[in-house]
Amino acid sequence: MLLAGRLDPDDLPNSAYARELRTGLAKLRFKDSLEPQYVAEHLQRVRLRVRAWSCLYIAWICIFAAAQFARTGVANVTFWVLALGTLPCAVALGWLAWSHRYARWYLPAARVLVPLSGAMFAFFVAQALGDAQDEELACLTVNIVAAVIFAGLLYRASLFAALSIVAAFAISGCILAVQAPLELAKSVLVLAMTATVCGIIYRNMERSSRRGYLKSGLIAELTARDSLTGLANRRTFDEHLLRVWQQAQRDGRMLSILMIDIDHFKAYNDAFGHQAGDAVLRRAGQVLRDFARRPLDIAARFGGEEFAIVLYDLSIANVLDIAERLRQAMRFGSPPKREAGSPGITISVGVGVVMPTVGRTPQGAVQLADEALYEAKKGGRNRVVLKGIEEYRNLTTGSFHVR
Prior knowledge:
Blueprint: E1 2-3, E2 6-7, H1 16-23, H2 34-72, H3 77-98, H4 102-130, H5 136-150, H6 155-176, H7 181-223, H8 234-251, E3 255-262, H9 265-272, H10 274-289, E4 298-303, E5 306-312, H11 316-329, E6 347-354, H12 362-378, E7 384-387, H13 389-393
Parallel strand pairs: 6-7
Antiparallel strand pairs: 1-2, 3-5, 3-6, 4-5
């Protein structure tokens, strides 16, 4: 799975992280639940940057408003644009950046307030150019850079903000006729080039960030899976079982645990070799994966030739049907070119159906399924045995029968 230090997404064909890596990140937007997860991580990563930018932005607008007031007093529309338009937008963004509502409300607000405040500042700069304050154009360039890179927006929203600022300046310049047409065109071109360069840089930054997020998720999945079968490993199974146990307890739902053992696997391994045994385990992983596709279900390699499945909130009839179909799906013959009459592969399945309650633990449910598996093997193997809620009620967790 890690070849020459490189991740291979093909090792996890059912992984959402691997699927996104294979697409090449062309759209800079993930599918399903990955996008909100990435956005949440993005917001936490850029929060310090956003806080610093918002404070500087507020101070910046205050300085410009004070300077405009000193030059013209209150009898000038640009002062009021800064004081009653741009400054409140900056204050709102700053407040959200420092508040506990940041994760939920900052991005929706910033998508509107960043381009709006930038457009109003562009009007101020256009007016300033009419008063021969050409240095203000450099300030608008800085505003574009900040809107793209420091405001915490995602790529598309940041590019929209930058282009909105350029468009607002161009429209204001045309309406106010602050420059000769050629000079205005040059100013607009400079701003457009700034927005374009910043957009390219920020696109590469977000692309790299998204790729890093996917690789981190893929590494986490790889460490949570058994390398041979691709199923969840024992640690992941235990963690998942505890989570769904707590949820089932809150919701009053049943949990079913299937313990699966490949019959006579050691003899099969000794007869046909470890490669044939590994092929059986990989085949088992492929089969079991198809029986645990719902979000709260899981299939895992429990250890050696033992596997386990957790099924959330199914009736006993449905669970028995699944266990029987699983048993049938795992019946296949011995490797070719071997001695005739060699037994094929079969499995024994022990099913424990429980209702999680206060005072009971997931370990007892696993023990119940394991005792059902022991009975299936003792009864001749290649069969399903189920123990239900009544047997679980009488079970003493951690007290094992001599076998």
